[in-house]
UniProtKB/TrEMBL annotation:
It holds the Pfam family GDP_Man_Dehyd. This is UDP-glucuronate decarboxylase. Residues 6-302 form the NAD(P)-binding domain. Its cofactor is NAD(+). The lineage of its organism: Bacteria, Pseudomonadati, Pseudomonadota, Alphaproteobacteria, Hyphomicrobiales. Belongs to the NAD(P)-dependent epimerase/dehydratase family. UDP-glucuronic acid decarboxylase subfamily.
């Protein structure tokens, strides 16, 4: 059945991939975005298609539309971006959730929240299971994002209990892939762009901190399966690839895969940077019959190919020197 689907943050990294998949399934998709970190170019394959529409709007303000489903993704996700205007970050999470939940309540439709592994903070339970309550700083530089997302989750549970809104809460772990913003500041895009430019690879701290990286196609599949569950849901669902990697390992892997001459340089570890993170995805496996399929090396290959193409189209001067030298 064709549905009218609203994707907030639809011009962002995850949002644009999700919009493409939903349109490919035959749905009518409306992306809403204020272009804080997202770009219209991310949606270039969809612009002009009759099934797709994009609208500039800030979700901290009310929005009245008639749709059948909402994916609420609007919120900057990279520490560099969400810390640039911390108050706006919290407003986006909290007011954005209130407005989108208000819409879901009015229309009696399901709504999915893009929550995050950050709600576990710097976790002392490992791997993280959904019933772990987290170890989060209320005052540090990451709090605007972590606490904003925690409050958004609380709003979701309360709209469910009080107003019967059908909610889905996805706790998304680190996800990477083509169409991450070049200036995004997240580790995979930083390391790949630095490696392709033969610039120093900026490893923060001693590089022993871990993350688990999920390729974007897998993540989007997980989000769509979660939206489409038929039984009533209680609580959140972790979505991520449970293969834990240290930042030093990923730096070395990217240097070797790109054949780069970059050296690794050590930089201070940002305040409150989580030491370890890896999802327990048993709940998603059981409930959604979902597991990530794309191994890290394959996902990195596709991401490296994407950034290589972007840099060559930009006539990136550093990269051009290399190409000239090589030929
Ligand atoms: P992104 O920054 O690429 O996308 C976020 C999008 O939201 C952007 O297009 C941005 O312009 C838009 N936006 C920001 N504030 C807005 C506002 N007030 N009104 C309307 N639009 C606004 O980040 P992403 O990686 O695509 O993340 C998407 C969602 O998934 C976010 O909610 C993020 O917290 C969540 N998430 C992502 C990851 C990840 O690894 N990518 C991990 C955990 C959670
Ligand atoms: N809202 C919205 N779109 C809608 C319905 C509601 O943006 O389609 C906003 C509305 O402006 C309100 C918020 O969502 O600020 C919460 O709505 P709700 O009905 O839960 O709260 P109330 O209006 O009763 O305060
Ligand atoms: N990181 C790094 N170099 C960079 C960017 C990030 O070593 O150029 C580290 C960062 O300190 C963190 C990890 O990589 O330990 C993941 O950072 P990212 O910003 O991608 O995501 P998050 O910390 O939100 O998981």
């Amino acid at each position: 059945m064709q549905k009218r689907i609203l994707v907030t943050g639809g011009a962002g990294f995850l949002g644009c991939h999700l919009c493409e998949r939903l349109v490919a399934q035959g749905h009518q998709v409306l992306a809403v975005d204020n272009y804080y970190t997202g770009r219209r170019e991310n949606l270039s394959s969809l612009l002009g298609q009759p099934q797709f529409e994009v609208m500039r709007h800030d979700v901290t303000f009310p929005l009245y539309l008639e749709v059948d489903e909402i994916y609420n993704l609007a919120c900057p996700a990279s520490p560099v971006h969400y810390q640039r205007d911390p108050v706006q970050t919290t407003k986006t999470s909290v007011l954005g959730a209130i407005n989108m939940l208000g819409m879901a309540k009015r229309l009696g439709i399901p709504i999915l929240q893009a929550s995050t592994s950050e709600i576990y903070g710097d976790p002392d339970v490992h791997p993280q299971v959904e019933n772990y309550r987290g170890l989060v700083s209320i005052s540090g530089p990451r709090a605007c994002y972590d606490e904003g997302k925690r409050c958004a989750e609380t709003l979701f549970y309360d709209y469910n209990r009080r107003h019967g809104v059908a909610i889905r809460v996805a706790r998304i772990f680190n996800t990477y892939g083509p169409r991450m913003n070049l200036e995004d500041g997240r580790v995979v895009s930083n390391f790949i762009v630095q490696a392709l430019r033969n610039e120093p690879i900026t490893l923060y701290g001693d590089g022993r901190q871990t993350r688990a990286f999920c390729f974007v196609d897998d993540l989007v599949e997980g989000l769509m399966r979660l939206m489409n569950v038929t039984e009533p849901l209680d609580g959140a669902v972790n979505l991520g690839n449970p293969v834990e990697t240290s930042m030093a390992e990923i730096a070395n892997l990217i240097v070797s895969m790109t054949g780069s001459r970059s050296q690794i340089v050590f930089r201070p570890l940002p305040q409150d940077d989580p030491r370890q993170r890896c999802p327990d995805i048993s709940r998603a496996q059981e409930l959604l019959h979902w597991s990530p399929r794309v191994p890290l090396r394959e996902g990195l290959e596709r991401t490296i190919a994407y950034f290589d193409d972007v840099l060559s189209k930009m006539h990136d001067p550093v990269r051009r020197v290399e190409v000239a030298r090589a030929s």
